[in-house]
């Protein structure tokens, strides 16, 4: 009996792997089919976000909160994704569908542009698909980018587009090409500030390309600089006026747990850069090595000009990051910050393997089934991660049942607030998502001053989580907006079970209702 079960299991496993191998060979010869595959994958991710708990994650909540007003800048990140999300909301309305569609469209376009970039430099179509799948198996791409990351996702897209436009310009110099490079560069700096770190590295790689120097010295390159500067200029004015506000949080994160010695600070920063890079490279490098290690090698051939192009880029980005760490004594580097800067790594690996492997069919059937299997397993893992974490006793923003608080305010308190004041954007964004006709303000963003009037029918509502330390700041904001003094208002507390119940834990929300009787005359 056991032997027959083992044989049946072995047969099923063999059939499954055989199916994935046949699919791998078909996809490997058609990069456009892989683009369609990624389109279907990210459509599935939109559906899964609809099925997940309706609480907004941190970045999602920020998008909903900031969508209330249009500004040249908001906080420590440039505003491109915020503008983009506002445009999506304007078309589809403020909904989970609009949030998921916006994110997954960016990720899909990143893969589509990445594949088209690989097609420009790789001679063998199969290695174009290998590069795309090697990008997919990076944990920060297949997991982190799906769960969070908005500005980083936009940076990935703009940098992929800059790579494509730059390579296309080297191959075919046209006026439109120079203008497109300028547009993408301007949008890239508006997506995330560390885009600026990639620019000198990419510029050096272009300069060292046989035709690259000629493209840079072309007078039309001045148009590239001018267009990118014009696009970034409005936000630059905001940044100059709000430099401390925009940089304070980032600088604090970059110096977390910094040792006292400058030498140790630099050593820690360099170590973080190396470890963060290894975290990004580890999975795709291991899978590529495992698939290639038993394959027959070609005789040594001359490296392609594009292999040297990407190699020069990575040498330059490494030197540049080392200089930044030494000069700024940066001690904390998170892998998601490095991800967009290291985005071309799969193409570099594919360029190397293209020149060194003799049997591409065997290599493809060894490598591609793993990413394809992951494309099946990752959505399942994302779907079950919430109840699984709850069963293990862990809480997260995604498991907070904000809808229960909404029902309490509307059905139990019978409130129709004129304004909601919160101390942070995770709280504010979730409340705005539910109270879509009510302005939601926070005391940390001074450029949003919604008009409102406090009455018995439409009082002001202050909401916070955790302790009461934020209450004086909320009260101060409300007094400043109304130009009045408030009496001591009554505070209420509501304990709500998690969306997926967690044993021994509840979601505690505190709130205070401010009516005309609470205002000192």
Give structural attributes.
521 residues; mainly alpha; 5-stranded mixed beta sheet; 22 helices; 66% helix
Task: Please explain how this structure is put together.
The chain is globular, with a radius of gyration of 26 Å. The chain has a five-stranded mixed β-sheet with strand order 2-1-3-6-5, with helices on both faces. Strands 4-7 form a two-stranded antiparallel ribbon. The termini are far apart. The model has no long low-confidence stretch (mean pLDDT 90). Helix 4 packs across helix 5. It has helices at residues 2-28, 31-51, 58-66, 80-92, 96-121, 125-136, 139-147, 151-171, 175-191, 195-208, 212-217, 221-241, 243-254, 262-292, 305-328, 335-338, 345-356, 360-367, 369-391, 402-412, 425-434, 471-482, and strands at residues 419-422, 440-442, 460-465, 485-486, 491-496, 507-514, 519-520. Helix 21 (425-434) links the parallel strand 1 and strand 2. The protein has 22 helices and seven strands.
Helix- and strand-based class?
A: mainly alpha
Beta content comes to 5-15%
What's the arrangement of strands in the largest beta sheet? 2-1-3-6-5
How would you sum up the major sheet? 5 strands, mixed
TL;DR of this structure?
Helix content is about 65%, strand content about 5%.
């Amino acid at each position: 009996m056991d032997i027959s079960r083992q044989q049946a299991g072995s047969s099923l496993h063999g059939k499954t792997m055989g199916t994935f191998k046949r699919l791998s060979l078909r996809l490997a010869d058609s990069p456009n089919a892989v683009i369609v595959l990624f389109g279907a994958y990210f459509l599935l991710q939109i559906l899964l976000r609809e099925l997940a708990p309706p609480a907004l994650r941190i970045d999602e909540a920020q998008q909903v909160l900031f969508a209330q007003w249009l500004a040249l800048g908001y906080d420590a990140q440039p505003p491109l994704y915020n503008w983009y999300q506002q445009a999506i909301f304007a078309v589809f309305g403020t909904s989970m569908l609009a949030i998921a569609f916006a994110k997954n469209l960016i990720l899909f376009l990143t893969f589509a542009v990445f594949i088209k970039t690989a097609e420009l430099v790789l001679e063998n179509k199969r290695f174009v698909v290998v590069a795309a799948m090697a990008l997919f198996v990076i944990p920060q791409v297949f997991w982190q980018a799906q769960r969070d990351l908005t500005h980083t996702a936009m940076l990935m897209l703009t940098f992929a587009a800059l790579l494509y436009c730059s390579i296309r310009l080297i191959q075919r110099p046209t006026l439109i090409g120079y203008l497109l490079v300028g547009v993408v560069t301007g949008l890239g700096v508006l997506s995330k500030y560390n885009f600026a770190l990639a620019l000198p590295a990419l510029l050096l790689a272009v300069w060292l390309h046989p035709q690259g120097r000629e493209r840079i010295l072309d007078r039309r390159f001045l148009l590239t600089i001018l267009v990118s500067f014009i696009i970034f200029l409005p936000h630059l004015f905001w940044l100059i006026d709000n430099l401390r506000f925009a940089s304070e949080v980032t600088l604090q994160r970059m110096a977390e747990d910094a040792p006292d010695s400058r030498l140790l600070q630099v050593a820690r920063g360099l170590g973080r850069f190396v470890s963060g890079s290894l975290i990004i490279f580890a999975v795709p490098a291991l899978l590529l090595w495992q698939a290639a290690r038993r394959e027959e090698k070609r005789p040594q051939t001359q490296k392609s000009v594009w292999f040297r192009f990407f190699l020069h880029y990575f040498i330059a980005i490494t030197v540049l990051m080392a200089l930044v760490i030494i000069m700024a004594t940066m001690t904390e580097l998170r892998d998601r910050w490095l991800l967009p800067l290291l985005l071309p790594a799969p193409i570099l690996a594919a360029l190397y393997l293209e020149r060194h492997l003799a049997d591409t069919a065997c290599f493809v059937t060894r490598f591609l089934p793993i990413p394809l299997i992951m494309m099946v397993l990752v959505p399942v893992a994302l779907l079950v991660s919430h109840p699984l974490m709850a069963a293990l006793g862990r809480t997260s923003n995604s498991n907070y049942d904000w809808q229960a608080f909404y029902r309490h305010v509307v059905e139990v308190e019978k409130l129709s607030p004129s304004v909601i004041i919160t101390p942070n954007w995770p709280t504010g964004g979730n409340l705005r998502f539910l109270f879509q006709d009510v302005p939601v303000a926070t005391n940390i963003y001074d450029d949003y001053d919604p008009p409102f009037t406090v009455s018995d029918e439409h009082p002001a509502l202050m909401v916070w989580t955790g302790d009461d330390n934020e209450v004086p700041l909320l009260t101060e904001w409300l007094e400043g907006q109304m130009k009045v003094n408030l009496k001591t208002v009554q505070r209420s507390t509501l304990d709500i079970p998690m969306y997926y119940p967690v044993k021994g834990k509840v979601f505690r929300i505190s709130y205070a209702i401010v009516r005309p009787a609470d205002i000192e005359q």
